Amino acid sequence: MLRSDDKAPDGKRAPLPGELMKNCTLANTFRLLAEQGKEGFYSGKVAEALIKVVQDLGGHLAMDDLAYHAEQGSAEVDAIKLRFNGQHIGKLYNHPVDGQPGGSADEEGVDVWEHPPNGQGIVALMALGILEELERT
What we know:
Blueprint: E1 3-4, E2 12-13, H1 24-42, H2 45-56, H3 63-72, E3 80-84, H4 89-94, E4 110-114, H5 121-136
Antiparallel strand pairs: 1-2, 3-4
């Protein structure tokens, strides 16, 4: 996503505020996934491109790995949550702000829901748990 810029230290810079960006590769990936669904990711052109990038960077990923992941990831699992009360969020959430009524959280905090494994949502919940624990110590 870096832009060429002769004035930048390495000749590249991040987009400026308000500057439009295009990521044609990502747009094409979304189109393929819309057309082909899950199979398009785990066994189609997207999978092939993903494996090529990983291998070109020295990683070890093969079509068999994606096929295994597709199979393992298809089991029904429940969402996971953490009741977070760091920084007294339960109390803050209930107070009116700018004339708007407060939320409906109880004094014990707010429930933060994430996708279950095999996604990365559990990492966010773990980080919140660590932050909350650090506040207590």
